[in-house]
Amino acid sequence: MKKFMTRNEEIILLTILKLKGNAYGVSIRKQIYRDTGDKRSFASIYQPLDNLVRKKYVRRVKDDPTARRGGKSKFYYEVTPEGLKNLRKLKKAHEQVWSGIPGISLENGK
Amino acid sequence: MKAGRILRYLYSRDYYIERSGDLEEAYAEYLEEIGSFRAKVWLWFQILKLCLGIIRFSIIWRFIMFKNYLKTALRITKQHKEYSFINIAGLALGIACCLLILFWVQDELSFDRFHENADHLYRLVEDLNFEGRTLHIARTPSAVAPALLEEIPDVVNAAIYLPAPSLLVTHGENNFYENGIAFVSPSFLEMFTFSFIKGNQDSALKDLSSIVITDEAAEKYFGGEDPIDRTLRINNKQDFIVRGVLENVPQNSHLKFDVLLPFAALENMGEDAGIRWKPVMENWGVNFYFSYIQVAENTDIHALDSKIVDFIKEHSSITSTELHVQPIKKIHLFSNLVADVEDNGSIKHVYIFSIIAFFVLFIACINFMNLTTAHAARRAKEVGMRKISGAKRGQIINQFLGESLFLSFFSLIFAVCIVFVFLPAFNSLSGKELAFDAGNSLGIFLILIVITTTTGILAGSYPAFFLSSFQPINILGKSGKTAQRKMIFRRFLVIIQFSLSIFLIIATFIVHDQLHFIQNSPLGFDRDHVVSIRLRGETAQSFPAVKEELLKNPQILSVTAANQLPTHILYSLTGAYWEGKDPKDDVLFHFVTVDYDFIQTLNLQLVEGRAFSKEFQSDQTAAFILNEKAAEYIGKESVVGEAFGFFGRRGRIIGVVKNFHFDNFYNEIKPLVLLYEAPSSDNFLIARISGDDISKNVAVMEEAWNKTIPFYPFELNFLDDEFNRQYRAEKRMGRLFNSFTFLSVFIASLGLFGLVSFMANQRTKEIGIRRVVGASVADIVKILTKEFILLVGIANLIAWPAAYFFMGKWLDNFVFRTHIQMWMFLYAALIAFAIAFLSVSYKTIKAATANPVDSLRYE
What we know:
The complex is a heterodimer.
Chain A: H1 7-19, H2 25-36, H3 42-54, E1 58-66, E2 72-79, H4 81-99
Antiparallel strand pairs in A: 1-2
Chain B: H1 5-10, H2 13-34, H3 36-79, H4 81-109, E1 121-130, E2 133-137, E3 140-141, H5 144-151, E4 155-163, E5 167-171, E6 174-178, E7 181-184, H6 188-191, E8 196-198, E9 210-214, H7 215-222, E10 231-234, E11 238-246, E12 259-262, H8 266-269, E13 287-295, H9 301-315, E14 321-327, H10 331-334, H11 347-376, H12 380-388, H13 393-430, H14 438-467, H15 472-476, H16 488-520, E15 530-535, H17 543-551, E16 556-562, E17 572-573, E18 577-578, E19 589-594, H18 598-602, E20 606-609, H19 619-622, E21 623-627, H20 628-634, E22 643-646, E23 649-657, E24 672-676, E25 683-689, H21 694-708, E26 716-718, H22 719-725, H23 728-762, H24 764-772, H25 777-812, H26 822-849, H27 852-856
Parallel strand pairs in B: 7-12, 9-11, 19-24, 21-23
Antiparallel strand pairs in B: 1-2, 1-13, 1-14, 3-13, 4-7, 4-13, 5-6, 5-10, 8-11, 9-12, 10-11, 15-25, 15-26, 16-25, 17-19, 18-22, 20-23, 21-24, 22-23
Helix pairs in contact in B: 2-3, 3-4, 3-13, 4-11, 4-13, 4-14, 4-23, 11-14, 11-23, 13-14, 16-23, 16-25, 16-26, 17-21, 23-24, 23-26, 25-26
């Protein structure tokens, strides 16, 4: 069985899904900031991104050059079916693991 | 955006476009939001983080691959234990040998450099023109140094140094014959850097009764007590007060002493110190002292030198003598003067040994490369597999280079261990006190690390670049072709290595044969069971009493005295007179003054005439005994009764003794005159004892000595040891040859082993087929061995004439010598063949007995 992806990879993958086709470096970073309040460096975005690409959970797609970026192309990221499959499996495992725990309330530490 | 360009070096093109684009977009937004400066800082921060991330990533991957390479390397090392051991041991031995020699060379080069003024210190030396040749002498008259200081402004300081023979030094119960005594002028300690532990140079040696000792001497006489202001008594007569304690004299100083006495004290000590020449300060005629000067900075030393030459001519009437200056840094390696303080080294030896060191290292490196290469050829399949699983060429290159670097550094560590173990043995061999410490060995280590790295890279480069260039399909496919390489170079190396080994084996035979010859040649006198005692100071006066006491014992056969030991008679004089002598000829006669019974004690053979006898009063002042060589000069059939004059005496020749070796075997036997003289200070008592129970007889002598002379400790030497001491250098050379021979033979066998492993590998299939069609094991061994026998044969042809020539030259140094004999060459050849056969047989027999099924299935 393949290993689960890491929490970072999971966040990135979900963000890509959420952005629905508009997922590239800058937008992913912004979305994560909006969702978590966490201002990440580009390095900590690219590292899990590259891992996801290597694991073939995510695909890179080249766009046409745009003037706003000094004439440099954007690369969009799309989640592959394999990525989705692994994500589902991860979600299921998450629920399974959390459900087994009785006395802990997630509401404000009571 | 300039900053983004850095990313170009980190990413491939696609990624660069994406990431620098992203950064630029975000940067443009920030520029509006937070202003130019903070945006820039943010941008740089982002780039830095990207860089760090990439570096970390690549290191992790390197590490993972490195683990794999290391595992492979360790597996291979384990799998081929004997190969790995031989390979590492060979290189380690080469490096160790090189390291030891470099230590030695460094020590030789460091002589006398520790003085602060080393660059401005010079010694005066004398060129004496004599009998048409020039003698270069290290000693000069005592008046020279003070006069130079006074009259030549460039000379800012001057000192005299005079080592004394051993004197009796006493403090309470501690009573020793001290060998390291020197008389020096007070300025000596200002010029040379011998640092004080206690006291200082202002108080030391200034007054006549002061004495300065080294730490070692302080320990010897005073134990743990503070020696300052305590007294030391010299020759049971004169007291000196310790004014300073110096650090021990470094081993790399040409001046070596333990006790310093003020030069002016010589005047009172006179004969007691065993110094015959009174140190008259105005004396320009007696060159007995070492004179040192310190010159001002920026002195033109050539101008000074010629000034000194003229200067001496003004003061001295002896016009044939010239004085020159010699830098003290050059004394040890660049001078070979008469009557120097110690036997110097030679820059020639430094060169020779450096060449040997690098030659040994070179050969060891080549062998290492050959073995590594031969071995790597087997791993073509591994390379194929790696390539198929996606290894890039660069990775394979790295792997092989890394592996051989790993082995070579392992050898370096091993070498350091070897040096640690063998340093004491090496010290006793070389007569040095070398030590491993970070200060002196850092430079050498850096050199060795460079050499080790180079060897590792070179050794790994063949497999790395050659094997990695193969197409996997060719390696793994049917043809199974591996490296085919011309082996002319390797054969050539094997020949060189064996030539060297054979040369050294022959040289070892010859050196030992000559030593054996020296030990066993008749000297013309009997040195067995002859002992000598130095008659120091006042003990000479008690000689008659001692002699009487000794002769009471029947085990002591005969007692005499002489001013020199019969094994090395050095004193010589011109101005002999006899009837019919051509006044133009002047012959240098050696001479020795002896007591009665000299001839009897040493078993010298009288050719004619008689020995000195108490019955003839005139024997004390007017009788001479000559050796045959001296008698030849007189040129008469029988010389006994001839008139003869020598040593300020006139009289008659009363006897002639057979020639005997009173000098070492390097020199011819020279004319010698024996004269009678009652024993005086610093003569030797010489006695023959019965050989029945030597230790008991020595004890008897000690008892007799202590009875007659209570204060002076009994110290006895055997004449045989004195004789052997002359050939210490030769003995050392013999031992050195032994070690070098062992080393070169070992390295040569390694070279051969490497070659044969390679060849046996290449011919696996051939051997298999031969076996299948009916060749016996012996046949196969013969086929494989034939070639090596040929190589060793050629090596013999090279080594024989070289050994004959060079060792012949060495033997020519000796007037009395052995001869080079055929058996030495034959034995050396035999040994070489045996070694060659042994080192190849393991591999060949293994190859020959291998099951042909395996070897033919090899593909």
